[in-house]
Amino acid sequence: MEYRRLGASGLKVSEVCLGSWLTYGGATENETAEACIDRAYELGINFYDTANAYARGKSEEVVGSSLKKYPRETYVVATKLFFGMSDSPMPNNRGLSRKHIMEQCEASLKRMNLDYIDVYQCHRYDTETPLEETLRALDDLISHGKILYAGFSQWSPHQITDAIQFQEQHNLDRFVSSQPVYNILNRDLEKAVMGVCERDGIGQIVYSPLAQGLLTGKYKPGQPLPADSRAADPKQNQFLNQGKLDEAQLNKIQKLAPVAEAAGLSMAQLALAWCLRKPNVSSVIIGASKPSQVDDNAGASGVKLSDETLKAIDEAIV
User: Fold this and answer.
1) Which of 93, 141, 159, 240 is the most exposed place for a label (fewest CB within 10 A)?
2) What is the pTM (predicted TM-score) of this model?
3) Domain count, the chain
4) Beta carbons of 141 and 96 less than 8 angstroms apart
5) Which residues are catalytic?
6) Which stretches of the chain are DSSP H helices?
7) How far is CA 11 from CA 67, 84, 100, 250, in A?
8) Per the domain annotation, does 313 fall within a domain?
9) Do residues 135 and 163 lie in contact, with contact meaning Cβ atoms separated by under 8 Å?
């Protein structure tokens, strides 16, 4: 396993990060989730991503309980806040107000049984809270040792620039991470956000690098969905068009199979290595429901794709 700095910070994270969205605390049994985390740790993965909203806190509980057996200095935990943690109609149940930030940080620490959170990220931008309030609250959490670094997920270039400028002007701890969607099929990150982040020393922790499993090649055009796949599960397929997959897209993806084979990689490794070709990408977040998937995905670390391979990927997909 190879490691990269998270943005311009001194924190080093594994190129492959094990995430818990739609898996741990919900669709995957706790024992299996722990087995995946144990395997990741054995392979040198030191970076684990979760969020308070994932299974409404249960994902954080699973991640925390699975990691507690290991020395705290050997792993990095990232979690997030923004979304409501209950169906309560009360107005302070979500967002990035000082009240919600402080309360949810304490709740996440308690669920994971941690003294501090390594990377604390704003899950979305809050248009109803002054940016200054959010940034000062995060800076206070860093000053108090509750969190070590702060970041965000799915912010626009304008929002990122405004935040960095305010942090610089008021000598606040700066953001070090951005968590966007990025994969061979979705390259919007490259249009503006990546450039802004690279300029300001913010590293990308990209999620959905396998496009919810599409880029693994397991979904075949004209064939039934694999019974154990995410697309076949009504609880998880909301991001896969309820299992109604685009046949034309699947045909394009199948063209990647010989490209991966020629490079000596699995299709998943090819897709992950494609994301990691960008220096501004600090880590790619994988989701695993079995340890064997962790093994395969971890094999993408350190892979350098040739210009010929990158050209073949573009010819297959674009």
Assistant:
1) 93
2) 0.94
3) 1
4) no
5) 54
6) 30-42, 58-67, 98-112, 131-143, 157-169, 193-199, 247-254, 256-263, 267-276, 291-298, 307-317
7) 19, 29, 27, 38
8) no
9) yes
